[in-house]
Amino acid sequence: xxLALAFPVVVLAAAKPPAGALSIEGGRGVxxxxxxxxxxxxxxxxSVEVVDLTPTDAWRPVVNGVTRARRVVSKGANVSFRILxxxxxxxxxxxxxxxxxxxxxxxxxxxxxxxxxSDTGIYSTDLEADCQDAPDxxxxxxxxxxxVLFGSTxxxx
Length: 157
Hints:
By secondary structure, this protein is mostly beta strands. It has one helix at residues 2-15; strands spanning 20-52, 62-63, 66-67, 71-83, 87-111, 122-124, 139-140, 146-150. The chain has 1 helix and 8 strands. The termini are far apart.
């Protein structure tokens, strides 16, 4: 009898799609990520807005090591940010953008080349790719507004 009750749980767990991934390194421009799961990031120079879309859960945005309220905006140099669970929207503008997200979601990318350098950074949604350690596995951030899904197909619009 116990085995009969355990079997459906195993089947449901096996049917759940694996979490997706988003990796961005050396980004320059505007990056907006709306997702569910965890996200860590840093911007060398620019601004970040983190909005917790599930404020009643246990997860809160953290910016520069300080736990914040539901919505926080920070500008400056070497701004770090994270939200480790729930639904979120993160908007990063600037240069030296690094983001690592796990879960499901959609990222809107707009690379802005510099005056003396056309580099806009690199990104990947491949679960196995790490743009920091293996940049050859990643794509250039496009200079036209581009949406990319990561994780399951029901990702947030």
